[in-house]
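Entry 14. Structure prediction run on the chain below.
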Amino acid sequence: MENTNEHFSNDLPVRINIYHAAQDDPKKNTALRLERRGFARIVKKIKFLPKRAIVLNPFSEIAFSPADRERLENFGLAALDCSWEQAQKVLGEHVRGTSRCLPILIAGNPVNFGKLTKLTTAEAIAGALYIANFKTEAENMLGIFPWGHTFFELNKRFLDKYTTAKNSEEIIQIQKNLFENKPSC
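Output returned:
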């Protein structure tokens, strides 16, 4: 019998690693489901995240953009799966990699539905993949969740605009235009 984890992970063009802090209900945890389906590898210590991967860090001052695609392909993507209340403490530890924050996106998950930036780990990873023009992979990844399509329905306009940016500065400008209801670029 074929190992489905190997099948899925071999289909992804990006290696995904997730630091899992075990701070929430394992039955509802999106990072653990990604691992079970072969989309990601879970690490229990921050020091095991790849050195040169892009780390999704909500406190970073540099926005994730399509310019990060090559680094994703070469070194992978790392996410931190911890509670929002603990995020700053976890990120205060030495996190290896290149930190990037996601631009504003709307949560499609049932717990934080409609809230800005309160994404699950799976939504954050899918958002980054989509912005880096791995759209099919992002949609396939969130397709394992009953609410996954909702994330894309809520964010399609934003994500499609973000994919047109050349760099972090353009992401910031697009985000500003989108949320100030001004005509965008």
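Confidence is low (pLDDT under 50) at residues 1-10.
Filed with the rest of this week's runs.
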